[in-house]
Amino acid sequence: MDKILKKTLQDLEFPAVLQQLADRCHTELGKERAMAIVPLRDRDAIIRTLGETSEYLASLISDNRIPNHGFDQINGELQLLNIENTTLEIPGFRRIGNICSMVSQHKKFFKKFKEYYPLLFAASELIEPNTEIPAQINGIIDRFGEVKDKASDKLYDIRRQINQVRGKIGQSFATALNLYHGSDYLDDIRESVVENRRVLAVKAMYRKKVRGTVMGSSKTGSIVYIEPEAALKYSRELHNLEFDEKEEIQRILNALTAAIRPFSPLLLDYQRFLTEMDITAAKAKYASDMKALMPEINHDKKLYLRDAYHPLLFLSNRLRDETTHPQTIELHPDNRIIVISGPNAGGKSITLKTIGLLQIMLQSGLLIPVHERSSVCLFDQVLTDIGDNQSIENHLSTYSYRLKNMNRFLRKCNAGTLFLIDEFGTGSDPELGGALAEAFLEVFYERDAFGVITTHYANLKALADELPHATNANMLFDGKTLEPIFQLVLGEAGSSFTFEVAQKNGIPYNLINKAKKKIARGKVRFDATIAKLQKERSKMAKTGSRLEEEESKAREETARLEKLNAKIKSKLENYQELYDHDQRMIQLGNRVNKAAERYFQDNKKRVLVSELLRIVETENSKRKKKTAHQAKAERTKKAQVAQEVQQKVKVIREKKKVALKKATLKAENKPRPVFKVGDRVRLTDGKSVGSIDSLEKNKAIVNYGMFTTNVSVDQLELVERK
Q1: 467 DSSP 8-state letter
Q2: Residue 611, pLDDT above cutoff 90
Q3: Short-list 126, 153, 449, 169, CA closest to 277
């Protein structure tokens, strides 16, 4: 791939993206490296970098979070290590030890979870492990940044002597303090510290009485600070020991520096690795903030951006709680060039910049905010001509500058080029500039280049209709409200809505009408036709959207009914199986009952056993051999179906009981009839009708013809009077 020009990156506002990326880095080196990112030239490197960022993005929502990678840079220490006979300071050793420990943590983590993060694991495997450096540093410097006593035998001995001398100084000072305090030579504060030494606070009038060295006095001169003579001797000894301690510490640090010096290239690799991890983490956080992902990268020269957002616009609108409109655009060998037209402020330039910026971001290893079904290809070069490019320093007009830019396009444009031109052909006489722009576009087309341009020129719209592998597109505009809809539609040129927008902005109608008369009648009719077609297209789009919604609802309802039907069918089959099983059991029970009855009559066991065996063999011949698991599953299924049936039967019985209870209550609430002999009656829970033969003490003898029965009159209901 060719190097993408700095001008192209600026046209597409790529530095602003890098600044937002740098703001998400933890380390200063990461911020510097992020601002220096440029599009990669190697396809494999692009795919690998995108893959690493995708893996890190997945870790942000995972329980297996990647270890912290924040570190303090060691550039100064690395420079000193490259100079002989230099010594690092203790903070430098701690920074080096921290970087070594951090790299070790990352290597262990990625090795443990290499199935989840294969690309990051592969990157960590390129770094040589080293436990010697942190072990040496930790053996000499403690976690508080002090050299350990046991860093050397000599240092241990010196510090032991220092502690002993300090003890003696303390004892001698305490003796002198008690002596002179008792003599009332000391001020109320008794003691102080001067030049890191304990001194007596002696009243000025008694300074001759106290033996020792004067170390100073108070501002008023009323107090003289004196180090006692007894402590002075030990102070000199302590000073000598402290000097020896410094020399020994310097020697130890010299030796440690010499031991680490050979590992200078490895430490540089460690710092680079952690810097790359910082940038990868920043890319992942940036992707998370703008809901970005890694789309499919194809080899077919196909660019399909579905629901693509402009990253900068998306993030700024989100802060203001405003809506960002996504765009869907497709370029492929059969549709290589798209000419976008339509009114100003309709979103043409943003759409153009979105395509270019997302392509640059992708080829720089950044994830892009598009739908997961998007598919992209890689271009050798991206050429842009966007915005007002008047060059003051070169004394060039806008049009002259754009012509120089077109000359560069003509030199570089080929089948691996994506060109993006905003307001193509403007800056000169409309007819002449349009003709020249048309010639340029034909050259780009003949060289099989891919591109998107925005224009108001009718001849470029017409050319896009004529060329087989080019197409028109427009940004939808509401003809009634004259508000942009921010939606790109392929296959149709857009009207500029020049006079409509002018009218909306308060330009007098008579002036607009006068302007219309000054231009060719055909042009006005052509523009009006386009505007009308665009309105119709918008109306059809709304109708299509409504029909799609209704069709979607119908499909959902059909799927629901099919699911319900399948469920009912399954239940019916289960109930049928249960019924068939119960019927078979009844028949089997009847056969066993007959055999038992025969045995009861003739008491012949052999016949009984023979009959039972025959019944069992007959039943077994109908069975299929099943595994224990199948048998268990079938038993479970039968038990569930039986339980369900019993539950339903129970519910039905409960309903019948409730209905009967209601009927009984209703009957009780009715006025009880007075029965007479000869009345036709029936029992409340029966169907047969009889006549009353006699009545006596709330009892009635009812004659049913074949028989009579004696019942309580409370159980009777009147059918017909005599």
Answers
A1: S
A2: no
A3: 126
First vs last Cα of the chain: how many Å apart? Answer: 115
Let me know: does 381 contact 371? Beta carbons within 8 Å.
no
Per-residue model confidence as pLDDT tens digits over 480-518 = 555 566 777 776 665 555 655 566 566 776 776 777 666
> CB of 386 within 8 A of CB of 12?
yes
Q: What pTM value is reported for the model?
A: 0.65
Instruction: Tell me which DSSP letter residue 712 carries.
Output: E
Q: Are 470 and 337 in contact (CB under 8 A)?
A: yes
Residue 51's Cα: distance from chain center in Å?
A: 15
Strand blocks (E) in 514-643: none
Residue whose C-alpha is closest to residue 360's, from 590, 707, 21 = 21
Distance CA 372, CA 335 (A): 22
Measure the CA–CA gap between 416 and 449, rounded to whole angstroms: 7
Angle of helix 43-60 versus helix 118-125 axis, rounded to 10:
110
Which residues are CB-contacts of 260 (< 8 A; sequence separation ≥ 6)? Answer: 81, 88, 93, 96, 133, 136, 137, 267
Mapping DSSP to helix (H, G, I), strand (E, B) and coil, where does residue 451 land?
Answer: strand
Scored b (16 or more CB within 10 A) or e, 125-143 reads eebeeeeebbebbbebbee
% of the chain beyond a pLDDT of 70: 86
Cα angle value 301/307/311 (rounded, 5°): 95
Question: Residue 472 CB: number of other CB atoms within 10 A?
Answer: 21
Q: What is the pLDDT of residue 524?
A: 54
DSSP letter at 368 equals B
Please report, for the chain, how many H helices and E strands are present, in that order. 21, 19
CA distance 639 to 641: 6
